[in-house]
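Allow me, if you will, to draw on your knowledge of protein folds for a short while. I have a record of one protein: its chain in single-letter code and its fold written as discrete structure tokens. I remain grateful for any guidance, and I place the record below:
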Amino acid sequence: MDELNDIDFGSVGTQSLTPEQKKSLTTKKPRVNTQGNKPSAKKKVNVPSHVKFGDGDDLPNQMIAMVERSSIMPGLSEFWEGVLFGDGLRLYQKTTVNGKRKIVEFEDAEVEEWLEDSRAEEALIEVLPDYFATGNGFIQLLWNKGGKIYLFKHNEVTECRVSPFDNQGLSKYVVVDPHFSQYVTSDTINISEEVPAVERIEVPNLITNKEAAEKEKRGIIHIKRKKAGKRYYGLPVWWSEETLKALNISYEIFTFKEKNLKNSLNIKYHIKVWKNFFKDKFGHQTDEEELKKKKRDFVKQIHENLTKPENAGKAFWSEFVYDQSTKQPLSGIIIDKIDSNLNDDAYSKSIDQITAILAMATNTNPGLADLIVAGKLGGDTGSAVRESYNVTGKTKTKISRKLLLAPINWALKYNFPELKNVFVDFASFELTTTDQSKTGVKESNPTVNQDATATQQG
């Protein structure tokens, strides 16, 4: 993972097509021609152009690797996936009662059955980790023969790229390929025996290319968390040079601890052997090669008895005699013990700082996400944690929820145009005291709370 230290932060959203890249497509790893026939050496195949995601076109892969190798980030990802998903999908309707605008729950058996059969919730659950790790997500919508959207399909963020803007300033396609970042891209490639057929397709962007999507009976909606100056791809909320350094330092600290533990046990003793020990012990008549073998066996015996963590506490023995004049033991072997001081207090403070940085970078209250800071689990009282969770749900989820729900609400309006002001949202709940609710949880939907925590879809 050393390559994670060399990420270029200015590369997101740069176009992939340089003059050199337009000449040919080169692969880092050969891939099998799935068609089973030999392509012509001079045959040209049009390959959809796309915008690179990072200088090496593998930035999402690196982001995901950073999250996965951290001991803190996977828990934060799961926490925010749970906060955003809430209590699952629910239908709501904007209405006016006595001149006041309200949002109320909406019930429709046909729509509810469609949401379940189309795997709407499953697609969202699958895209949430992509969104936390990379700030992007891709959901594909598929049409049935009757002209209705019948299925939501999650496409892996590592396998999707967007097409460059056209003369109208629109990116009209999502390019899908399971092998992105394994080769340099171009408009056209020369197919040969060394470069097998490319498994790459263009799928219309449903927002900017609706007619093409209807014609192909499929389209993709690109979910992205916009960051200033980045035109094509989003970035996660936690993404910064400081956070990257914190993650790398955290990884190095635990790597150091691991090596320190193993190596401290391996050099716990300094064993000195007198130069003529083996000659004196086994006699001057012993063959030189035999003496070397006995020396190797002796060293092996020491390693088997004194090294490796699983051998901790084992002993090693050697023979000695007493000097008659001094009454002191004489031996051809001297064993000096080396103190193993594994005091890591200095790094404990660094780990606390890193935990605090990651909590701030992800807008997370440590107490809510069960983070240990300064030796304590969180640091707030129960009432403070409850209030923090409720505030988080009301103020820090609306934008992300609206972005994530865009594919579902687009399809809802497309399939059921007769439904006015109806939209899908994640059902919310609030933490409360057990004297108000036996479970400590109460619903916070618009029918109970006119302050409506639901994400009002345009």
